[in-house]
Write a structure and sequence with these properties.
The chain is mainly α. It is built from eight helices and no strands.
Length: 149
């Protein structure tokens, strides 16, 4: 009976420690995201480039800047045309819908990756996800999606 009680106490301590570590990681990255203006620039760049893919104007800075300026700061694209064609589906959607689809696909991909990891230790994976900058960017992107209506 003493052995079972001891292992239960150890399990609770590990759970509390994992929750505490997760809270600190989430708080840190959300603070960084809330105090930064650079989040979302990548999506705007992909979206704008996908709108120009196939027009012969993918690297036309004036055309790219005009589209990007509608949703954020203009950024030169250095992507290969195959990348712009690969995300062409989001370019056919309105910006807010495309952004929601982009972030949702990223979050699903991230969660599948995290949950499918071989030999998964759930508390340690939860801590790793909470301290992951890409996960924080995805979450913050979801929070900041422009809503329709």
């Amino acid at each position: 009976m003493q052995m079972a009680s001891s292992s239960l106490t150890t399990a609770r301590a590990r759970t509390v420690l994992a929750v505490f570590a997760c809270a600190i990681g989430l708080a840190e990255y959300l603070w960084i995201a809330a105090n930064s203006s650079g989040f979302g620039v990548d999506f705007n760049q992909f979206y704008s480039a996908s709108r120009l893919a196939g027009t012969g104007r993918l690297y036309d800075w004036d055309a790219l800047r005009k589209i990007e300026a509608e949703h954020g700061p203009p950024v030169h694209t250095g992507r290969l045309p195959v990348v712009a064609f690969g995300v062409k589906l989001v370019g056919w959607m309105p910006y807010s819908t495309a952004h929601a689809v982009w972030v949702a696909c990223g979050m699903v991909s991230f969660l599948v990756f995290a949950l499918a990891w071989p030999g998964l230790n759930r508390p340690l994976m939860a801590v790793a996800v909470c301290w992951s900058a890409p996960a924080a960017v995805l979450f913050w992107g979801w929070v900041r999606i422009p809503r329709c209506g």
